[in-house]
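Minutes, project check-in
Item: structure for the 407-residue chain
Input as provided by the requester:
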Amino acid sequence: MFLLIVSGTGIALQWQSVFGDEEAEKERLAEQTSAFLLTTPLDTMSAQLAAAQTAVRAEGGSAPLDRVVWQLKGDHPTLTFFVGSHPARRFVVNASTGVIERRMSGDEESWILRLHSGEIIGDGGKVLGLFWGSALLFLTVSGAVIYWQMRRPGATGLKKILWMFVFTALVLPQHPAFAGPPFLTDDPGMAPKGWDVYTNAVYTKTTSGNTLTAPILDVSYSLTPRFKFNATMAYATLHPNGAMSQSGITDTDFKFKWRFADADEKTGAWDVGIAPTVTFPTASKTKGIGDGLWRYRVPLIFGKSWGRVTVQAEIGYKFVAGRGVSDEIAGGADLQYALSDAWTVGAELYDTVPVKNTSAHNPLVNLGVARKVREGWLVMGSVGRTLRPERDGGPRVFLQFFSEWLF
């Protein structure tokens, strides 16, 4: 019962954090610049404070005043008076007009948060919250250990697939890396049935600074030669020119890939697949690593080989769940040539086009090489550069290194 309460209220709190009015207001204010400066005369502000106090005193009388919060950004500045009466109350006053806009209870924490922590029933509830949090941690760890002990190394077929898929969901983290290493263009083909793990690093340099994204972990599992799941996440460090560096996890990607048509030399058909992708906004918006927006991408992927030559192409639409941010159309193509069984080289052209401003598209060229170290292990690298002129933000140079394991 306790775990049901804490999990249910936790989901409700996360929903409020992502879609609630308070969070939306915080994000809106974060994008604004205050009209007030350190040089703004205080006598004007003092007069506004006195007018707001008079309005609150007309309703609250001589009740204790705990504190006053002055919000200077927004459509207009506001003053929030926290009155320590019984019950405690809050009054939000328009600082420009001195009129009370909202009257609220003094509880700054929602009842859902107090139920989640146990505080809703007092100090004893906080102690219970400590116990059920510890119980959840114990059950998670002991459950993973027990599940590992239940594994059957000799299992085959559906039993092996089910066990490995569930274990992956339990223990693996999930970031958008580059889907078709060492290129941005994805491929419609699949690795042999089993695991496909990438670790890689990406260095990007622009006119405003540089970014190192490392480590990046990309984990895929092919359920069949036509269908696989993929989860990726990464850690990035931003080094803007003239500003403090920021580090943190990036946004997280989860996708599945389905190849529904196979190449045929007789008919000239190509490999064709789709790879619907959901991007979770796990990156910090305050640090500038992410923008806090969900993204949904649906690409159509093509591929075909002629001897040592392979061509891959991709075109897709990316939906962005945020006001004022444009959806995008992205696509590209790469040409690869196998120099030998161990070495492959290639080149790529790729472009991203904002739907609301097609002139702001960002074409790039990318050159890559892959080396098969031994069966099941490949290393790859590429160097690329965007082709935007200096007046439109300048070029962006990036270096990528990949190590891939198949098992």
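Outcome recorded: The chain has a mean pLDDT of 82.
No further action items on this chain.
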